[in-house]
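Researcher: I'm preparing a figure for a lab meeting and need a structural model of a single chain. I don't have an experimental structure, so a prediction will have to do for now. The sequence is pasted below. Please return the structure as tokens so I can convert it later.
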Amino acid sequence: MTLAVTGATGHLGGLVVEHLLRRGTPADQIVALVRRPDAADHLAAKGVTVRVFDYNQPDELAPALTGVDSLLLVSGNEFGKRAQQHQAVIDAAKAAGVGRLVYTSAPGAETSISPVAPEH
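Model: Understood. Here is the structure written out token by token.
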């Protein structure tokens, strides 16, 4: 099973990839999806597959998800763009045949007064 993590060089995405490796997930079953591959050299050195994945480049998303069984979509950090970006990722995952998609949201997004809540 191939697991892909978006934002794999960010805080949450990076923690998830490191956790997968520590728990024994084979590195060749992990795909780190990143905007800047040079920032993921440390993951590539561990055997993790690194692919360019920019939420703002929707035409490039589906090819990057080729062969992925499960995708963790870590919420983007651009105010006002999240819904469009996330929908592009969901559409790409469907097009690529990803079987499972998990999304990180915000707790209590429906009732929270946090400025990021409405986009979750």
